[in-house]
Specification:
The structure is a homodimer.
Chain A: H1 24-28, E1 36-37, H2 59-65, E2 71-75, E3 80-82, E4 90-96, E5 98-104, E6 110-117, E7 121-122, E8 135-138, E9 142-148, H3 149-158, H4 160-186, H5 189-206, E10 213-215, H6 220-227, H7 231-243, E11 247-250, E12 253-256, H8 259-267
Antiparallel strand pairs in A: 1-2, 2-9, 3-8, 4-7, 4-9, 5-6, 5-8, 10-12, 11-12
Helix pairs in contact in A: 3-4, 5-8, 6-7
Chain A binds a DNA duplex through residues 188-189, 219-221, 229-233, 235-236, 238-239, 251-252.
DNA sequence: CGGGGATTTGACACATATCAAGAGCGGTGG
DNA sequence: CCACCGCTCTTGATATGTGTCAAATCCCCG
């Protein structure tokens, strides 16, 4: 049997899903200067280049990427990189640290839409309406490369490979979102948690870290929000996985003891 | 048995979401000629231009859009426009008709990821990996404009406004997906159904149709898949809404009797 | 005009949420 | 250095929303 994933569609978001701008004015206020590093970053020399926006670029194309990033910005744990309603100016590449992105409805409901780690790009949510539609907050002290969108447009105007790369980047996000929809729409709680852990593991591996031991930067509640579960359910499932010998959990420290076992749980066929 | 297509993904989709290529070779076979209309389409003369890809383009920019579309393709109800695993060649703009897009997991689980109507673009899911990652099927006899991706790259190379438009298009999809995540992750069944109906209504209005009366092209099961509910639940909620005087339902004919009421249900604050 | 899929509806099961209590841990201040 | 406080996490008991299974009706298509 075939397997697959996701889609596309240009149709608008549900009104339900309409995200409320938070407080545009507040966002306009200048960030503390100390948080902006004016050091010119060199994508071509960055050890994240193969994970990040310039991934796949070569020679002169890679050199062009250097023109994109002039500044970095530090974001302390708990602070936001941007909020819904903020004017859209730049994309951000995570240089170090860990972020969550989330939407908040009128009713105060929160939905975490993703967790971003080094090399991943944030901010494209603002391209369509010129204002950000989600919030991005650091889960630990972090640093991002600021990629002014106008500059990205300028440079990509003459660098086809970069244009292509931006398309890929956004398409990848769309494909990822389809995966989350699949998870939220048709997986049971245990499957969701297993998928979540395996996804994290895979991403850590891509960054040169151990596949089976890592530190969760997010709270149970945030995991729950992302997975469409309550925090107690997440906690219980961690405990259950531990009883099954799949996992060793100590608060935010996770050790995966049986990757295959987790995969089995994730792939459970419901019928 | 499908071949597994390894989709690159930095922040990749869950493995659960790993897409299995369906049968790439099969997709290469020529479509029946009769289904491809060689008539040169004129975006600038199309009545969908303000909803579709060229939306917002003016003058020469709009004229450039005419270069993008050389062919149209008809897809009969029940047939697929493309399937997961098919090589990615083109984007498609729905000219008439109605589509669903969906992913299928190894286990045979299906998740509808969206419904597309006239003016909406399909196919961007294939940009990242050069192969489609979702399936797109017509829910009624439909016609799409075929936009070869290489041509889109050529034309947008010299038309900044078009580049911008493509970015917007993809960003809009991402924002929409966040809305669906919110829906799937934190709304109760009644809220999901209300949001779904209001979203459909809004999109019909944008196309000049009545806001309160329309024909559902999809089955209860497909609505349920999209909303993360079982078909029986969708049916029951339609009935409940009818009892509440919010809706008049007759199989696939829907009349919204109380838009505000539906909105109230959708915005229920849970706390 | 017949037949099979789609829809509705009921009874019941079960997964997950809710409510509640307590434990663990880190930071702060006396 | 210890005690306290607040936050996070765990765990139990119970509630409830949605799924599952089943049957009847409808109706669309051939």
């Amino acid at each position: 049997m075939p397997a697959v994933i996701s889609v596309t569609n240009p149709s608008g978001p549900y009104d339900a899903a309409v995200m409320l701008g938070r407080n545009p004015e507040a966002a306009v206020k200048p960030r503390s200067q100390e948080s902006v590093v004016a050091l010119r970053s060199q994508c071509s020399a960055c050890n994240l280049r193969d994970l990040c926006l310039p991934c796949g670029l070569e020679g002169q194309d890679m050199a062009s990427a250097n023109e994109l990033v002039y500044t970095r910005r530090r974001v302390k744990a708990g602070e936001t990189l941007y909020q819904a309603g903020d004017p859209f100016k730049s994309l951000y590449a995570v240089r170090s640290g860990f972020f969550k992105s989330y939407v908040i409805t009128e009713g105060g409901r929160v939905q975490v839409t993703g967790f971003q780690m080094s090399g991943e790009i944030m901010g494209v949510d603002g391209i369509d309406s010129d204002h950000h539609t989600i919030n991005a907050a650091a889960l630990e002290d972090s640093e991002v490369c600021v990629i002014p969108y106008v500059r990205l447009e300028e440079v990509s105007a003459r660098v086809p490979a970069l244009r292509r790369q931006v398309h890929r980047l956004m398409a990848r996000e769309i494909v990822r979102d389809h995966g989350v929809m699949l998870l939220l729409g048709s997986m049971r709680a245990e499957e969701r948690v297993a998928a979540f852990l395996l996804n994290l593991s895979k991403r850590f591996v891509a960054r040169g870290y151990a596949a089976s031991e890592f530190h969760l930067r997010m709270k149970r509640e945030e995991i729950g929000s992302y997975l469409g579960l309550k925090l107690e359910t997440v906690s219980r499932i961690f405990s259950r996985f531990q009883e099954l010998g799949l996992l060793a959990v100590q608060k935010k420290s996770i050790a995966i003891l049986d990757i295959d076992g987790l995969q089995d749980i994730m792939h459970q066929t419901e019928d």
